[in-house]
Amino acid sequence: MKQTIFFILTLLILMTTNALADESACEKSPLVKGKCFAIVGSLYSYNGWSPYIRIKAENKKIYGVGPAEHELIPKSIRQLLPTQIEGQFELCPFGETTSVPYEKEMIEMVCIKSVHNAWYLDRKSGKKKKLK
User: Considering only CA atoms, which of 61, 62, 68 is closest in space to residue 31?
Assistant: First the structure.
């Protein structure tokens, strides 16, 4: 009985630690060069030119999520890709910009610390669903 309780407690601690590590991976990254900030916008996945994940803010500014091919994003977002996600994103800046040939504006590179009040387009039903 004691072994079972110990096993369950250990499992719960590991699950909590993994969830916290996922949420703080962005903020604690050595790539972050400034204070994190919140924006409202839409996240899209792109093929071709990096950054492959971009967020277009309500003010039309574009943020690229990095680092390329190992983006620092919450699991709740990663499991839905390549679906469009709309909501409030907390971003942490990398202090660098990039560009792609078909965009006039520079793309500020960031990672995603968290997402709140978000919706995504379900690929199967074609309907918007609340992100949990």
Answer: 68
Domain boundaries, the chain: 2-130
Say if strands 62-65 and 107-121 run parallel, antiparallel, or are unpaired: parallel
Q: Which two tokens stand for residue 27?
A: 């903020």
- Token pair belonging to 118: 């978000």
Confidence at residue 63, expressed as pLDDT on a 0 to 100 scale: 97
Local confidence band at 3 (pLDDT 50, 70, 90 cut-offs): very low
Please give the single-letter amino acid code of residue 111: C
In Å, what is the CA distance from 51 to each residue of 8, 9, 26?
Answer: 41, 40, 16
